[in-house]
Amino acid sequence: MKKILLTLFLLISLVGSARAYDYSYLTFETTDGNSVAINVEGLTLSISNCCLVAVDTDGSDYTFAFSNLSKMYFSDDATGVQPLSPDSEEAVEAYTTDGRLIGKYVNAVAAKTALSKGVYVLKSKTLTFKISLP
Hints:
The chain is α+β, with helices and mostly antiparallel strands. It has helices spanning 2-19, 108-114; strands spanning 25-30, 35-39, 44-48, 51-55, 61-65, 69-75, 92-96, 101-105, 118-123, 128-133. It is built from two helices and ten strands, in the order αββββββββαββ. β4 (51-55) and β5 form a beta hairpin.
């Protein structure tokens, strides 16, 4: 298992150093179909307890269990992460950045009001987006 993790880390390092400058985002897709795109500028990747941890420049960290990570790739589009639309009246589910469901709300505004300080992923029927609450 350690050999596999070390090999994966080395491949990520090589691919990241060779290709990260060509693309704006590193996109992670999970086995449940969700995807998160993170800006590669200042991105730090590490491995901790059988999980891949990505930390972006604003300090937000994203943890992906290897068993739940189906694919990761570089792209020019921020697929999976959209800006918050305050006009949206769709019901949303709030998740921690490691994928745990923490609540269901009538809309994004209600979620922002109810949630405490932190970074969350909100998912509606049509969008998945990241919010950061001060």
